[in-house]
Structures
1.
Amino acid sequence: MDLQDTRGSRPSEGWLHWLSSVTDMFAYPLRTSHYVELVNPLWSTHKLQAKVVDVWDETSDSRTITLKPGANWRGHRAGQHVRIGLAVDGQHYTRTYTISSSPERDDGCFTITVKAIAGGRISHHIVRKLKVGDYIPVGLPQGEFYLPDASPAQPLFITAGSGITPAMSMVRSMVSQQRMANTVHIHYAPGVQETIFGKELREINNSQPHYCLTEVHTNTMSENDPARHFSLEALEKICPDWRERD
Ligand SMILES: Cc1cc2nc3c(=O)[nH]c(=O)nc-3n(C[C@H](O)[C@H](O)[C@H](O)COP(=O)(O)OP(=O)(O)OC[C@H]3O[C@@H](n4cnc5c(N)ncnc54)[C@H](O)[C@@H]3O)c2cc1C
């Protein structure tokens, strides 16, 4: 399974490509990278793989997976996603997950945060079965929805459940870069225990004067409460200046 988009490889890697094209002549009909992969899958250059180095339960049905990507990885921008490949019951599947860590993370790893959805084949496998030491094929980061280089003036994030992942990467990035913009974040989750990144979000809310979090815990509200679901009325109440925000 090859999920790799080779665009964006660094010019300094040119000599490596030259060297491998020479050694490839001796490796024919395979390529040198196929043999290197047997020693360490992260060193292979014909496909990009990542090693699971940590798993962390966010809630009872969601998990953050920390991945160490191989040689051809290039960094992501906060908000971008990756495709990952998995073999389940003898069949290959690919799924897309947003990178939930910030680009400023300096250990060469990135995280995805996955919620196991009812009847979902791959999300269940990732949350329940993927373990430290496993290798999985990954693609390069992609997507046009990312944090711009210049600070957005007044971001407004409206998120729910595992849909928080791109906003989380952006908020983490603004914290790391010490450039938190005047941010309003409205997040919907069933309850405190079911809130992915809940503890960290509350800590950021307490420590960052320009970040204002409103959590809506839908299971604690009555069925008829209109605030249970996102609406223009709710938005007007929580964030009256929403029209001026990005
Ligand atoms: C850009 C992007 C970013 C994303 N980021 C994240 C993220 O950060 N975190 C995250 O958790 N998810 C994310 N997703 C969603 C993720 O890609 C998967 O779609 C999700 O994990 C479900 O995959 P699955 O294999 O478990 O479900 P699938 O097996 O594909 O099933 C999906 C749904 O269809 C139903 N279904 C399946 N087969 C049938 C059938 N034959 N008949 C009727 N119904 C059926 C299932 O019950 C389930 O509800 C993202 C998606 C995109 C496009």
Note: The chain has a mean pLDDT of 89.
2.
Amino acid sequence: MKRITSILLLLTTILSSILFTACGHECTLAEGWRNNTTSHWHACTDPDCTKQTDLANHTWDVGVITKRATQEAPGVKTFVCTECMYQKTQNVAFQGLTEEEWNTALSSDLFINFTCSERTVLKKSGMEIVSIMTYEFEQGKGKITETIAGETASTLLPLENLSGYRQAIWMYLRMMTDYQDYYYEARSKSYKLKGVFTVPTYEVPVDTASVKFKNGRLSEISYTCKVTVEGTIYYLTSTINVTNYDTTKIS
Ligand SMILES: [Zn+2]
Ligand SMILES: [Zn+2]
């Protein structure tokens, strides 16, 4: 009886080892993991054996941003399998500039050679005044061009006042672009007002405002406000465009 049990046990062991090793041999595992996009396993050193030992799904880590998203292109987040080190990537949508990136885009040293043009529309019932002020700066040169009601006049800035004007324009832009006052709206790729600031030229609170950046540089500020002159309310809409960074050439 004891012998029969032993034989049965032996048979069971042989049968199960045949069932568990498809190739009918004891696999010798190759070094390291094999993997595909979803899983990893240990392969057999026998090239004809297809058994995938320890087959399991990847176990992803929390992921790390390997390329920061910009307004112009999505970023990349990379995940690594903690077992086999297989990597996968995921696109990351742009969520708006960080405060640091915002302040970098507005740092004064970027505003040396540039063109800043402000178009203002002043409205009251049945009446509209359009004016455009353009400031152009290049190394050692500056020019103001003013257009009111279709009439244009230009003045070259005296060299001794150049840096003062440049600084004043930069400060003017900076007074309307406090990071804390805006939130990013992905749909319009612009920053919308959530706070409040005083419009520098008119010393009145702003009603609406939006800011745009292009390739990490300030490109547009637009705002609306109400200005009261001798009891009459004027509705003011203004768009400031900053262009030709480092390429402004004064004619
Ligand atoms: Zn094998
Ligand atoms: Zn893995």
Note: The CA atoms of residues 69 and 75 lie 4 Å apart.
3.
Amino acid sequence: MQSETVPALDGLTIRAAGMGDLPVLAARDIDRLGQLYDRLERHEADRGELLIALIAGRPVGHIYLWREDAEEPELREHLPAVPLIMNLWVSDDHRRQGIGKELVARAEADLSGAGHREVALGVHPDNTDAIKLYLSLGYEQWGYGQIATCKEPARAGKERFANDICEIYVKRLNG
Ligand SMILES: CC(C)(COP(=O)(O)OP(=O)(O)OC[C@H]1O[C@@H](n2cnc3c(N)ncnc32)[C@H](O)[C@@H]1OP(=O)(O)O)[C@@H](O)C(=O)NCCC(=O)NCCS
């Protein structure tokens, strides 16, 4: 599934990312370099999709669509084959301009276009800004409580810890 470039808010473009975007993406979001590299690798292998938002050619945000089986057993049990959106991020100087909403809307449109009827996401219970955004877009808590997830991408020989607590939200997608 590859997104086409579509203009969103005035001056904002959202398009599928490529490995060539990594240096600029990492420059804006250096704490997430390893995670972004992992997402780009999955994207290039057609296992998911990394979308980036640009203004005047400069990345100002991103979101990842996880289309593989979930890593967390609770998600595989209660939401089998439901894709996840994750790694939503908007640069500090561009927040509260609707870019986060646009990124989520675009992710949903791509998933809906690919035939998915539901989408899920995990968010830390203290992340009230993000939760407000998701609630405003019609996401609802899934009802099975919080789960522990791994923030770090899986890497051969590297131990991972599921220590990131998440609340799971779900939304039905209109086909
Ligand atoms: C969460 C995040 C992606 C929101 O991006 P954004 O582009 O600022 O969001 P939007 O402008 O589309 O906001 C949409 C709605 O979400 C809510 N919202 C977003 N940020 C908010 C804030 N700081 N305070 C209160 N409400 C907020 C509001 O309801 C807002 O609508 P409004 O501006 O009309 O009131 C951004 O703050 C971010 O990158 N945070 C750090 C990374 C992160 O937490 N990602 C989410 C991981 S689950």
Note: Helices lie at 22-28, 33-44, 73-78, 99-113, 128-136.
4.
Amino acid sequence: MPAAKFEISRECKFCGDLFLAKTITSIYCSPRCSKSAYAKKRKVENIKKLKIEKALKISNEEEYISVADAVALYDVSRDTIYRLIRSEKITKYNLGKRLTKVYRKDLEELFNLKPITETITAKEEVKTFRLEKEDCYSIGEITIKYGISETSVYTHIRKYGIPTRQLGKSVYAPKTEIDTIYK
Ligand SMILES: [Zn+2]
């Protein structure tokens, strides 16, 4: 008896091509698109993580902050900040040609911006990868579990920016990340 078929034409979330989805949850047309989407997501997450790390260093005491700090702290673009300065919607303070500071209360009160460090997700984003041995696979274990050569594993680790840790003679990578790229 043929297996029950689930086939529905869908647009791949990465490349936009139409494909026949085999399961309800398929959103990408190919493993290639799924991996590219994952790499893109990781890149965005890394940028956000850097912003949060930067934002965490900005003192709450500062009434005026640099544009770069405002970008990190409120997760808005430089263009947005400069547009607000140009249209005189926010108070700026010029410390010479190259250093403009903005009044952070304006951003918070007029535009209802909240520091990313105060959002719930911010706390989750800064969590570092657990690199304890029990949370990791050794490279050898990955090659066995997923039937992939060591060279490919290293290539993917670099490509997707997966953190690794050397313990004794073996290199370890977090299980969650490895499972995500190979499942
Ligand atoms: Zn695709």
Note: The two ends are 28 Å apart (CA to CA).
